[in-house]
């Protein structure tokens, strides 16, 4: 069984920046440290966007410094808070496709990992995501070339509505085109996303979708009229994707929760 650590929605800010009273950089370091300590047998780390809060050079520089001593390979893609040019300037070695989108294919044994860039810098609705024709062509080529491997897709915006009006309004704009691309291939076992700052599970085209929490701030259960910026100070978290012969398992692990007392059911 192979293991991948997944983080999403880091929201790095300039030195001294806070989201509410939370320091995103400190929260990220705590979550990353926990993951590296308790999941030391992981083969890699994937971070699915909203790396920076404002998409500024200083924010990406702070993230780069935070990852400098990471002992595992780290793969990055972008979300709605990111800015592609600033990211690429800070991470010039990050893989991109021929059109400049921050997406890549990683073959790991019998599994193909596909990272998609859903950032739409010209979005008609701020913070919504998009997979334009060029990005969908990349996805189709990656799926067609899987060569019998099972596929796990990582992306920032979930490809499904999550039942929160505010978040669905800034979701992936072209879900139907994405679904149509998936329907032409039968190899996808799992989709992992972020954006909502909450653990949510669903499916698209019969494929399981797992939405993961942030290392920083989380979303409450959102009723009608709740603003997209509504956030709660709950523990930071990361995802663990286990790849095994029978399929894919996705866990969400909270960090810095109160002391856990083991209970006996004798």
Automatic annotation (TrEMBL):
<dbReference type="GO" id="GO:0004112">
    <property type="term" value="F:cyclic-nucleotide phosphodiesterase activity"/>
</dbReference>
<dbReference type="GO" id="GO:0046872">
    <property type="term" value="F:metal ion binding"/>
</dbReference>
<keyword id="KW-0378">Hydrolase</keyword>
<dbReference type="Pfam" id="PF00149">
    <property type="entry name" value="Metallophos"/>
</dbReference>
<feature type="domain" description="Calcineurin-like phosphoesterase">
    <location>
        <begin position="3"/>
        <end position="198"/>
    </location>
</feature>
<comment type="similarity">
    <text>Belongs to the cyclic nucleotide phosphodiesterase class-III family.</text>
</comment>
<keyword id="KW-0479">Metal-binding</keyword>
<keyword id="KW-0408">Iron</keyword>
<dbReference type="InterPro" id="IPR050884">
    <property type="entry name" value="CNP_phosphodiesterase-III"/>
</dbReference>
<dbReference type="InterPro" id="IPR026575">
    <property type="entry name" value="GpdQ/CpdA-like"/>
</dbReference>
<protein>
    <submittedName>
        <fullName>Phosphodiesterase</fullName>
    </submittedName>
</protein>
<dbReference type="InterPro" id="IPR029052">
    <property type="entry name" value="Metallo-depent_PP-like"/>
</dbReference>
<dbReference type="InterPro" id="IPR004843">
    <property type="entry name" value="Calcineurin-like_PHP"/>
</dbReference>
